[in-house]
Amino acid sequence: MTPSTIIPSRRQLFLGFFSIGLSGFGGVLPLAHRMLVQQRRWLSEEEFTELLGLGQILPGPNIVNMSIAIGSRFHGVAGAWLAVAGLMLAPLVIVLSMAMLYDHYQSLPDVQGTLRGLASTAAGLLLAMALRMGTKIERHAVAVLLAVLTFIAVGVLRWPLLLVLLVLAPVSVWLARQRGRAGEKS
Amino acid sequence: MMLLLSLLASFSVFSLMAVGGAITLIPEMHHYVVESHHWMSGQEFAALFAIAQAAPGPNVLVVSLIGWKVAGLAGACAATVGMCGPSSLLCYYVAQLWQRWHASPWRRAIERGLAPLTIGLVAGSAMLMSEAANQHWTGWLLCAGSTVLAWRTRINPLWLLAGGALLGFAGWI
């Protein structure tokens, strides 16, 4: 299989991200991968991994960052706008409509009960996501320790996120560089 | 107007702190809208998160819902623009440089160093969300059940949400 990729037009860019936005439930990443790499072939597997890594290390919503990077790669600033607009437009309308319905009917006991069930399940999905990510952590005591420290600082002690990041992020990156150096030598 | 500016400013700051995505901001947003400004209760916060999860689209939509709850449609726009603006601008410029740094060992170190922090942040968010969402032991039971199912099986999360909503509708949660 040759990894020949296709350059989308502006219209295709918008419509492509529009369909990603509409079809992803509980996170859009798996769908984005299938559409961008396998179906439409705008990106090769390596390019996707590269952009995903970028979207994840930069602050901000991952998928929005990826849309910016992909849109601008093909059509500059206009491409970035079109990709993000395509991604957000339909979901925004849907979620706000749902919230308005909820607001209107929230006094009904049935609606309250439904939302309680929904909220507990959604919290469970988030816990599962944390567990899945946790089992994929780098097998190194330093990495595990940093994850636990971050969890305690933010989740248990409820320290301000900015403070935690300003201290732990540089430390963690520096320690990762040391691990990298050790790996190069051996 | 002051309210909108406050939303825009706060979420612009959150935007640049959201290492690992909007989900990692949950404790910070909870503190901002529930604890310090009392714009909504913890349960309402959990309900908005649940609605965002049940709707199609990216996780960041929970931010739009929070803005909407605080200040209507204009609030939703202010919070969303604040949340996506600064990080998008940063991403636009870094994306150009990123390929040039392909061979830099620091690039790998940044990826490798931030990964454990993201995991810790997501775990912290998950814990706070569970406390806000589960009001009775039945809620904790449902939460634990969906955790195990979502973690160990490949079931579509939408089915779990539908099941949870149904149990809640039946009055069991």
Automatic annotation (TrEMBL), chain A:
Entry keywords, A to Z: Cell membrane, Membrane, Transmembrane, Transmembrane helix
Primary location: membrane
Transmembrane regions listed in the UniProt entry: 12-32, 80-102, 114-131, 143-176
One cellular component (GO) term of this entry: plasma membrane
Any GO MF annotation of the entry: chromate transmembrane transporter activity
A UniProt-annotated Pfam family: Chromate_transp
Highest taxon of source: Bacteria
InterPro entries assigned to the protein according to its UniProt record, in alphabetical order: CHR_Transporter (IPR052518), Chromate_transpt (IPR003370)
Membrane topology: Multi-pass membrane protein
Subcellular location: Cell membrane
Protein family per UniProt: Belongs to the chromate ion transporter (CHR) (TC 2.A.51) family.
Name of the featured protein: Chromate transporter
UniProtKB/TrEMBL annotation, chain B:
Cleavable signal peptide: none
GO MF annotations, alphabetized: chromate transmembrane transporter activity
One Pfam family here: Chromate_transp
Domain of life: Bacteria
Transmembrane domains' residue ranges: 46-66, 73-95, 115-134, 155-172
Cellular localization per UniProt: Cell membrane
Major localization listed first in the record, in broad terms: membrane
A GO CC term assigned to this protein in UniProt: plasma membrane
Recorded topology in the membrane: Multi-pass membrane protein
Record's keyword terms, sorted: Cell membrane, Membrane, Transmembrane, Transmembrane helix
PANTHER family the record matches: CHROMATE TRANSPORT PROTEIN-RELATED, CHROMATE TRANSPORTER
Family note: Belongs to the chromate ion transporter (CHR) (TC 2.A.51) family.
Identification of the protein by name: Chromate transporter
